[in-house]
Design a protein that fits this description.
Layout (H helix, E strand, L loop, with lengths): L2 H9 L6 H7 L2 H16 L7 H25 L1 H4 L17 H22 L2 H25 L3 H10 L1 H10 L4 H24 L1 H7 L4 H4 L2 H24 L5 H23 L3 H37 L1
């Protein structure tokens, strides 16, 4: 990118609307972080005070939003090269990089301090580490350096259940580690299914995603291998007694669905049908994770209510 285009990206934004700042937060990713953090909070041995719990979830939401804003600040140069991200506030010229950076830093500081004061400093430290990991380790380093970016970087998206548990219990446990592992292993087959369809976007931006570096066939094999690993990992929270039988059934059926979808992606390698199959697997992976955490939340809330 030329110096002129970089400079124009900095200076062209004016009169940003509130919706532009909301877009910086990456609301869908933020909502997933809050939802999984809430699930982690509910697996704590004792219910958290509702007021402290609500403030903690707000802080986690703000922290996730800060990560999104700082990610968009740093990635604005490549975002403008990809059709999927060209309409974001910075590449579209509605916000400057400086505005996004200031916004993200203020939110990050607010989130960490609020969680530390409202809940405890272990949870706040984990939230700070989550923001650092996503922005510095993943966005600034891994994303542009290695096709393993989404594998290693996926730890950032897997940490919210541990943050939620720590906010409620002031410690960590095997249950929060299992939820971390579930999201961590889920991330590669989820994201690589999308990457198979968006290969051209990543190639234009120079981002070394798996299909561009290893090739599509190797990526399909990795999706299948990770899905085979994910299926039993999804069942472990039930196996170790942290969830009820409904979760066990959902995890078993969902795991089978992930493997079946991965097999279909592996077998269909060319043409429009291959792209549709990959997108279908991407969509199902979202449903899989949402269902497991939704069932966990319902089960835990029911347990608390019956025990009240």
């Amino acid at each position: 990118m030329s110096l002129v285009s970089d400079r124009s990206l900095e200076l062209s934004a004016s009169g940003a609307s509130p919706s532009d700042y909301v877009a910086l937060l990456k609301p869908r990713i933020m909502s997933l972080s809050v939802f999984t953090a809430f699930a982690g909070m509910l697996t704590a041995p004792h219910p958290i005070n509702p007021v402290i719990g609500a403030i903690s979830l707000l802080a986690i939401a703000v922290g996730a939003g800060a990560s999104g804003a700082l990610n968009m600040w740093y990635d604005s140069d490549i975002d403008r090269l990809m059709a999927r991200t060209a309409g974001r506030p910075i590449p579209a010229g509605r916000l400057t990089r400086g505005e996004a950076l200031a916004f993200g830093l203020v939110l990050a500081a607010f989130a960490v301090l609020t969680l530390g004061l409202a809940a405890n400093w272990l949870a706040a430290g984990l939230l700070a580490f989550t923001i650092f990991y996503y922005v510095v380790i993943y966005t600034m380093w891994l994303k542009r350096a290695t096709p393993h970016n989404i594998v290693i970087g996926g730890a950032a998206g897997a940490l919210p259940p541990m943050v939620g548990y720590a906010a409620a219990a002031g410690s960590l446990s095997m249950s929060s580690l299992l939820l971390f592992t579930l999201i961590f292993v889920w991330t590669p087959p989820h994201f690589w299914s999308l990457a198979l369809v968006k290969t051209g976007d990543y190639a234009r931006a120079g981002v070394p995603m798996a299909p561009n570096v290893w090739g599509e066939d190797a990526t399909r094999r990795q999706i299948l291998l990770y899905s085979l690993l994910l299926a039993p990992i999804g069942i472990l929270p039930w196996f170790f007694g942290f969830t009820g039988p409904t979760y066990g059934i959902a995890a078993t059926l969902g795991g089978v669905g992930m493997v079946v979808g991965a097999v279909a992606v592996f077998r269909r390698r060319e043409g429009t049908l291959a792209r549709k199959t990959a997108m279908r697997n991407f969509g199902f992976s979202i449903l899989y994770l949402f269902t497991l955490f939704a069932v966990l939340v319902v089960e835990r809330l029911a347990t608390f209510w019956m025990g009240a």
